[in-house]
């Protein structure tokens, strides 16, 4: 079986975990990694992560010229760097490379650029690419339609050093049409990686939808799921939510 070739943008704390997840999956071949600066230039991500084989040759962002993607072909580009990477995607998209972006925040100009690339290639953009949180968001929207009069509160818990309100929690509030100041509750304590809970209060019963990130590897598993879902799909703009919502639709049990 032919392996799916992947290139990664970003080799910081999260990028290294994502690279490790792809290296551990037998269906994938990590071809290269692009990072800022020249640290570990032309070394292999696999060696730096403790493996005894060469995979994921490291390049600087300065190496990404007009010929980079043609000379180093991959099936998918996974971005865990920052918003500036989007300006290098055009050549990748033109080369037929699927794009998976897990950047937490883009400016409108950058979002417009992503949309333009989706006109002729497969582009998936999800600020939080973990599978669980996207299942939670789809389930919450379904439950809200089933119980439109329920009281809803969102609780987000993160490590003590996280100052800003969770972007994922804000997105949940937006999807459910809730005022952030009134219905979003933040807790900062200990070493929690990240936990989101949506509470639906109804007469005589309460329903709680909860997702907790235990390890950054969850982002890598989400990226793997995203790449697999894009293979064979027509050009267009995809999100984890739309993919999961379609899976919900296809797998609703019929009694």
UniProtKB/TrEMBL annotation:
Protein family according to the UniProt entry: Belongs to the DapB family.
Pathway field: Amino-acid biosynthesis; L-lysine biosynthesis via DAP pathway; (S)-tetrahydrodipicolinate from L-aspartate: step 4/4
Pfam families: DapB_C, DapB_N
Lineage of the species this protein comes from: Bacteria, Bacillati, Bacillota, Negativicutes, Selenomonadales
Database matches in InterPro entries: DapB_C, DapB_N, DHDPR_bac, NAD(P)-bd_dom_sf
Keyword NAD set for record: yes
Name of the protein described by the UniProt record: 4-hydroxy-tetrahydrodipicolinate reductase
Reaction(s) the record says it catalyses: (S)-2,3,4,5-tetrahydrodipicolinate + NAD(+) + H2O = (2S,4S)-4-hydroxy-2,3,4,5-tetrahydrodipicolinate + NADH + H(+); (S)-2,3,4,5-tetrahydrodipicolinate + NADP(+) + H2O = (2S,4S)-4-hydroxy-2,3,4,5-tetrahydrodipicolinate + NADPH + H(+)
Gene3D superfamilies named in the record: Dihydrodipicolinate Reductase, domain 2, NAD(P)-binding Rossmann-like Domain
Domain Dihydrodipicolinate reductase C-terminal: start-end pairs: 132-243
Entry EC no(s): 1.17.1.8
Top-level taxon: Bacteria
